[in-house]
Every structure is written in C-alpha cells, then in structure tokens.
Design brief:
With 275 residues, this protein is mainly α. It has a domain at 1-91. The protein has 16 helices and no strands. The protein is elongated, with a radius of gyration of 24 Å. The model is unreliable at 1-24 (pLDDT under 50).
C-alpha cells in the first residue's frame, strides 16, 4: 500500500509533462502501445510524454512500476542521465524486488561510469534471479575490472554449467582468457560465438589470439574476414600490418600501416607498433 501511495504521488508530481485534451482519451493499454512504438523508433521525447500520460491516466495500475522503469531508460537514452537515475531510484524504492528496475538502473549507472554501484545492482538482481545470463555477464566483467578474478571465474563457470551455448557465456569466457593471456583457451569460445555472430570484432579477437599462439595462417584468414565486414576500420588494417610484420612481409606491413593511417589511426601509434 505504501508503494502504491508513493507511486501515485510520483505520477502527480510530473507536472512538467503536457496535459492532453480530455475528449476521446485513449485507454491505458493504447497509450502504452504507442509508447512502445515510440521507443522502438527511438522517439525518446514522444515516448517520455506517453509513458507519463499512461501512468497519470491510471495512477493505481500496478504495471506503472515497469512503465517507470522504461521511463528511466527513455530519459537515459535521450541524454538525461541524472533524471533517468532519479526515476529508477524512485522505481526501486517503490518495488525493491523488481529485477527489471535493478537491471535498468545498473545499466544507467554503468553508462555514468559508476561501476561499483552498477556491480552492486547486478549482484542484487542475480540474488533475485540467478539465471539472468546477460546480467551475470556484466557482473563477471565488472568483477574482473575490479580485480575480483575469483568472482568473475565463478560467474563464468556458472554460465558454462547452465547455458554453455549462450552468447554471454562465450563472450565472458573469451574476454577473461584473452585478458589473462590464455590465448589458446580463448579461441574455442570465440569460435563458438562466430557460429552465430559473424562480427568483425569476433574475427579480429580470434585473429589476435591466433597471432599470439603462432597460428599465423589462421590469423590471416580471420583478419581478412574482419576487414571484409568492416572495410573502413583502421584498427583492423593495423592488426593486419602487425601480422604482416610477423610473417616477414615488410612491404605488405607498410601498405597496411599506411591504410590504417588514412582511416584515422594516429601515425605515431602505427609507427611505434611497426618499428
């Protein structure tokens, strides 16, 4: 009951939002559907107005907690970071056991470079639902960033045990092993990712692991595939320049290095890496 009262007060306080004509007022679900469409089209200002309008039309509707959560994300996407965080703080105060609110607030905190607070929210969300693989991925990566390697590995083992094919499982494991210098162990996870996600970044990551393990032919194939997918990415040409250097092909290395510079990679960086 207290949460409901707070929610009604919150909605009533949104006085800055426009007041719409009272005749032919669409029902709650119609407004929510329009808000969903606006979100899908990234029309953030329109979505914000519609979400507030829906909540004001039925202040006692229990679905308003999720609308508030969506409102927080809409405000975040429109560049209103502080207001987004305050909206999600209010939603969490009203529904502290809402996993959706915790996840969204964690994403906003992460975007605001508040990694410790984001980690705490991801932790709370996992305590409520341990099977959230995307949430566990972020939890693992933030643990790794904070030097909590054992927690990161515990998350990865949990993910492998429960859903080893999940993209976040393989992305987390590949990232951990690459950063730890376990390049040969990272390759199978990247290969599994590439079965369903033919992304240049995955090919480039696998190519780097192959370069570090001496499999230069496979690396050449992967970096060529990455460049075919992202032909204007200068970092990929720099990577291939390094590969050409490792293969004792100085002219090819110079050509790729020059192409990297043309695509925006700082010349001093290229020269330093090819020296």
């Amino acid at each position: 009951m207290k949460a409901l009262i707070h929610l009604i007060i919150y909605i009533s306080a949104c006085a800055a939002c426009p007041v719409f004509a009272e005749d032919s007022i669409p029902n709650y679900l119609d407004i929510v559907q329009k808000a969903d469409e606006a979100i899908k089209d990234a029309h953030w200002h329109e979505a914000e107005e519609l979400l507030v309008r829906a909540m004001r039309s039925e202040p006692a509707n229990p679905g308003n907690i999720l609308l508030m959560s969506n409102l927080g994300m809409v405000r975040y996407y429109s560049g209103q970071d502080s207001l987004a965080l305050q909206t999600l703080n209010d939603a969490h105060a009203m529904a502290p056991a809402s996993v959706t609110v915790l996840q969204n607030r964690a994403r906003v905190l992460l975007g605001m470079n508040k990694s410790i607070e984001a980690y705490n929210d991801f932790t709370s969300a996992l305590e409520l639902d341990s099977m959230l693989m995307e949430t566990r991925f972020y939890h693992a990566m933030l643990a790794l960033e904070q030097g909590r390697d054992s927690i990161c590995m515990r998350d990865i083992k949990f993910m492998e045990r429960h859903d080893y094919k999940n993209r976040y499982t393989n992305l987390a494991a590949a990232t951990y092993h690459r950063l730890a210098g376990n390049y040969s162990e990272a390759i199978p996870y990247l290969s599994r990712l590439l079965e369903t996600e033919k992304y240049a970044e995955h090919y480039a990551a696998r190519a780097m692991c192959e370069m570090m393990t001496g499999d230069l032919n496979s690396a050449a194939t992967d970096v060529a595939e990455a460049i075919s997918l992202e032909p204007t990415d200068g970092d990929l040409y720099l990577q291939r320049a390094l590969l050409q250097k490792m293969r004792y092909r100085p002219d090819d290395a110079e050509a790729d290095g020059q192409r990297a510079i043309e695509l925006g990679v700082p010349e001093e960086k290229v020269r330093a890496m090819l020296r």
